[in-house]
Amino acid sequence: MIKILCSPLTKLPALKWLKIYNTSALQADAMAALIVTIMLIPQSLAYAMLAGLPPATGLYASILPLLAYALFGSSRTLAVGPVAVISLLSANAVGLAHITSGLDVLTLSMTLALLSGMLMLIMGLLKLGFIANLLGRPVVIGFITAAGILIALGQLKHILGIPLSGHNLPELAHGLLQYGSDTHLLTAVVGVVSIVFLWWARTPLTHLLCCFMSATAASTLSKMAPVSAVVIAILLVSNLGLDQQGVKVVGHIPSGLPSLAWPELSWLLASTLMPPAIMISLIGYVESISVAQTLANKRRQQIEPNHELLGLGAANIASAASGGFAVTGGFSRSVVNFDAGAQTPMAGVFTAVGIALASLYLTPYLALLPKAVLGATIFVAVLTLIEPHEIKFTWKYSKHDFAAMMITIGMVLCVGVEAGVMAGVVATISLMLWRTSRPHTAIVGPISGSEHFRNITRHNVAQFEQVITLRIDESLFFGNVRYLDNQFNALLAQSPGVEHLILMASGINHIDSSAVKSLLEFNQRLQDKGIQMHLSEVKGPVLDRLKRVNFAEQLTGTIYLSQHQAWQDLTKAP
Amino acid sequence: MIKILCSPLTKLPALKWLKIYNTSALQADAMAALIVTIMLIPQSLAYAMLAGLPPATGLYASILPLLAYALFGSSRTLAVGPVAVISLLSANAVGLAHITSGLDVLTLSMTLALLSGMLMLIMGLLKLGFIANLLGRPVVIGFITAAGILIALGQLKHILGIPLSGHNLPELAHGLLQYGSDTHLLTAVVGVVSIVFLWWARTPLTHLLCCFMSATAASTLSKMAPVSAVVIAILLVSNLGLDQQGVKVVGHIPSGLPSLAWPELSWLLASTLMPPAIMISLIGYVESISVAQTLANKRRQQIEPNHELLGLGAANIASAASGGFAVTGGFSRSVVNFDAGAQTPMAGVFTAVGIALASLYLTPYLALLPKAVLGATIFVAVLTLIEPHEIKFTWKYSKHDFAAMMITIGMVLCVGVEAGVMAGVVATISLMLWRTSRPHTAIVGPISGSEHFRNITRHNVAQFEQVITLRIDESLFFGNVRYLDNQFNALLAQSPGVEHLILMASGINHIDSSAVKSLLEFNQRLQDKGIQMHLSEVKGPVLDRLKRVNFAEQLTGTIYLSQHQAWQDLTKAP
Q1: CB contacts, 8 Å: B436 with chain A
Q2: What is the pLDDT of residue A391?
Q3: What are the pLDDT digits (tens) for B230-261?
Q4: Domain region containing A326
Q5: Which of A398, A435, A517 is the closest to B137 by Cβ?
Q6: pLDDT reported for residue B10
Q7: Which of A133, B292, B387, B469 has its CA 20 to 30 A from that of B188?
Q8: Mean per-residue pLDDT for B521-534?
Q9: Residues with Cβ < 8 Å from B352, sequence gap 6 or more?
Q10: Model pTM?
Q11: Is residue B200 within 8 angstroms of chain A, CB to CB?
């Protein structure tokens, strides 16, 4: 056990790339780090605001966690830090716990990050990453879409300068109706102009820049737009005194590095925060690994899922220990890091140094930043989380999956993020059970001149009165035993002259104990009617299992290797 | 909608058999009813005691419910009434609700029967019977085994005459240790002698009787043993005055027919009792339909699952309206009814008349019946619910299913029946997801001289360096997308010279939207490496779905009808 738990530590991914680290990689990493640092400063402040925390915590969450991930993570180019949906999850959970426990929100946020990090570590050490598989694509896309909408609407608080709050659509809509008329005009001008500028910079500007430089450079440069907005806004505030005229600014940020301290963890607090911590660790992991996987595929690198869990777990624990909140791998900053040429996680180390310098020397300037500008950067960033083509694809491909997606979106919007994800997971599993409980079956016959058997209603195949072959296109398990029993009975009622029934098992990947009992009973019933039951194309693992209970001995017929053999044997003249 | 809801009523099963009812059927039914009535009287009293209710309610639960089932149910020979496990569920639920609501247990039991009946009716009308599929064989057997143990131990209260109570093994064990020394000697003698007699009558006596009569008659006669025990015990009590010496008897039973009255139903009460009502309706249905199915198969009759739900729902509502408690189809009495020659549900009507006569004229005698004798009949009856060979079969066949069974048994014994069934269902679904998340895959090649492809590690097959065929033995869905992605990558790393990858889809019964996206991404990655991806043996329904998103156009290779074609096409000399 100790060996299993320690093995990830003796196989640190960092040891691998550090061995071959050289000057050219160092230059590339430093350059990428510079660009990511500039991009990460406003993002850190914005997501701290989204998480309901003082702006400095955003910077703190972007220093030690980056070092921790660089040491333990397996992706070469993933950029870790605060991200929108995780900040929203943190804000919701902490808001609730603040009311019940009376503890301050920062302590609660740190505790939540600690718990999430510990869960990720445990999942990584025990190789339980597969639990995240429960979050299917419909649930993840549905969750991100709806969370994006909620986050965007929530930013209207800062963009319009109104006291808006709420965890779901009805609450936010109610707040908007109530306070909409209190909009602070100057704040709204700053906010709306920022949105327009950022939106323009995202696509039209990129297209324009493409005329002068490579597409990658244009895209990276356009991602610097938030920084220019921040710089311009700070200059405007300091020169025009906008903060005196009621435009809310970030305000004093203590300069310096974060101090190290563990949040105190009581059983009561841990049990209150455990459900959101589970949610954050699963969603954070799913989000991050898909980014890491996409980037690794581009450079033919490998991602090791369990190391990713260790890396993200360490990052969250580091965040908790240094006054930060929950973090994970972010999509846009990882892409910038990758495009700017980062070679190794050393880029993350350099970024951490950059952010540390910013929190030492830039805080007096950042204090003048209008909250409306931060709100605008969040607003524009999260709108790109909404991907209509993904929703359309799902609609076209599977109505079931679309239903699960809509249930997730609807529940997240109307009730809240946690209820939405839970409902989505329950819906996906229920729909899967429902589908497999009514499996597709087909009566098949041979296509003439081949050994190939196909559905008699779709293809022109040979048929034989005394021999029926039924292909069942599903594993047999407790959920479909009773349905299949009804199908068997109906089939026999329609086929009076039958003497042999062949179950073609090419689509049967597993037979559970409920189903094997049912098959034995059916075999008995067929025997009473003078019909022999045979199996064909039984897969190796299924056959191995049937042998354990002497199935072949109890079967009235034969288990054939191939359907062709069974057909030849049973249809030849007696 | 109205048509759908009414159709079951216009197709009453009773209309079918009443049309062809004749004197010979009437004689057979009357004979069977007489035997079942004699058997049902002590059972009714015993299960009322188990349900924590006055003995008369057991008789009431065996009058109107039988008429209701005869009208709506689809089984010809099922005998409905109080049964052990449902009585236990009712007792537990009502005991809890009694403390929180303060209402008397009889009202609560009637309300619970009403809710369970309504749930069964709704499931029957909306054809939702498939929900009961969730209870797989391991869960049902585990639940019944553990409930049998709990019920048997609980009867020690009556058999030993001690104030024992408890809903799980630790509570009962604690009670036994505490009160064991208070055992009332005379009561214990009556109880233990009854157990020994009933146990002897069950097997040794049947074997003895077989020497003189047919096996069926011997078995039916031996099932009358509880009645003889009851008669002998009543005679002993009235002659020796055992009740004066501290042997607890059933006591005064009001003679007469049940009065009709609906239990009042408040929202609060309904929501408190809803979880146990769901449990009772599902378990009652699963129990009953498996008995009905077994008996119907013997006489080549049909069971209509949705009519069964209507029949059982009507029976429970009738029980609630006439001072009874939750009922369902019972195994032993149905077998007796069947073996005694019952032809139609008219036997049930006659049985109801018999029980009504008993509650009119026999109650003064039944009042003298020692509770220890009733406890002994329950004790012996439920011990037969424990089927070690079923548990052994599951152990041999599937360790997963065995684990789910043990979790159910453990939780029922240590926590309680509801927690146990819930844990069993969650365990079954989790284990199924875990299994399907790591599907069996095999690299296959053709068996020489045939069109048949088999695992290269199990069979002697042809191989080809440039062409690899991977057979995936599982539907592709959100749960196994990431695992398969890893498998793909590992496969490619091992096979440097490959130019064509064929995915043999004979085991793929469904591809969900998460998986189709992943396949498209994998196809893209292969293209980057100059490898073509092909599919073969894709099933019709899967192919139809792939067409919706123009999968074939995006695929770098071809979708072949058969693996044989794909192999011939791709391995032939260029």
Answers
A1: 475, 510
A2: 93
A3: 899 999 988 988 888 888 888 888 888 888 88
A4: 23-430
A5: A517
A6: 59
A7: B387
A8: 89
A9: B62, B63, B64, B66, B67, B70
A10: 0.78
A11: no
Residue A516 lies in a domain: yes
Note whether A133 contacts B393, CB cutoff 8 Å: no
Q: Which long-range contacts (CB under 8 A, 24 or more apart) does B517-521 make?
A: B517/A137, B517/A393, B518/B476, B518/B481, B518/B484, B518/B485, B519/B476, B519/B551, B520/B551, B520/B554, B521/A297
Question: Pairing state of beta strands A328-329 and A441-446?
Answer: unpaired
Q: Do A478 and B509 touch (CB under 8 A)?
A: no
For residue B383, pLDDT beyond 50: yes
Length in residues, chain A: 574
Interface of A with B in 280-319 (CB under 8 A): 293, 297, 302, 305
Helix, strand and coil in chain B, % to nearest 5: 65, 5, 25
pLDDT of A1: 47
Do the Cβ atoms of B516 and A435 come within 8 Å? no
Total domains in the fold of chain B: 2
Question: What is the average per-residue pLDDT within B90-113?
Answer: 91
Q: Tell me how close the Cα of A432 comes to any Cα of chain B, in angstroms.
A: 9
Reported as a single tens digit per residue, the pLDDT across A244-300 is: 888 888 888 888 888 888 888 888 888 889 989 999 999 999 889 888 888 887 777
Nearest CA in chain A to B489: A302
Residues B439-496: tens digit of each pLDDT: 888 899 998 877 788 888 888 888 888 899 999 988 999 888 888 888 888 888 788 8
A 40-99 → B contacts, CB under 8 A: none
- Residue B11 inside a domain? The answer is no
Report in angstroms the alpha-carbon separations of A211 from A96, A207, A330, A334, B216: 50, 7, 29, 25, 95
Residues 433-452 of A with CB under 8 A from B: 433-440, 442, 450-452
Q: Residue B165 and residue B173: Cα distance in Å, rounded?
A: 10
* Best A444, A514, A565 residue to mutate vs chain B (most B CBs within 10 Å): A514
Question: Which of A200, A186, A148, A194 lies closest to A376 in space, CA to CA?
Answer: A194
Mean pLDDT across A27-33: 90
List chain A residues with CB under 8 Å of B435: 510
Q: Are residues A385 and A274 in the same domain?
A: yes
Same domain, A234 and A301: yes
The phi, psi pair for A180, rounded to 5°, reads -50, -40
The CA-atom distances, in angstroms, between A380 and each of A86, A142, A375, A385 are 17, 19, 9, 10
**Of residues A136, A482, A564, nearest to B478 (C-beta):** A136
- Between B2-10 and B305-321, two packed helices, what is the crossing angle to 10 degrees? 80
Residues A405 and A504 placed together within one structural domain of the fold = no
Judge if B341 and B474 occupy the same domain: no
Percent of chain A predicted with pLDDT > 70: 98
pLDDT bracket for residue A5 (50, 70, 90): low
Contacts of A512 in chain B (CB under 8 A): 136, 398, 400-401, 432
Residues A476 and A397 in one domain: no
Q: Are B557 and B453 found together in one domain?
A: yes
Is B512–A452 a contact, with Cβ atoms under 8 angstroms apart? no
Do B493 and B525 meet the contact criterion of CB atoms below 8 Å apart?
no
Q: Please list every residue in chain A whose beta carbon sits closer than 8 Å to the beta carbon of residue B393.
A: 513, 517, 549
- The per-residue pLDDT for range A60-103, each reduced to its tens digit, is 999 999 999 999 998 889 999 999 999 999 999 998 889 888 88
Q: What tens digit of pLDDT does each residue of B265-286 get?
A: 888 888 889 989 999 999 999 8
For residue A18, being part of any structural domain is answered with no
Q: Provide the chain A residues 370-399 that lie in CB contact (below 8 A) with chain B.
A: 393-394, 396-398
> Which DSSP string corresponds to A137-204?
HHHHHHHHHHHHHHHHHHTHHHHHT-----SSHHHHHHHHHHHGGG--HHHHHHHHHHHHHHHHHHTH
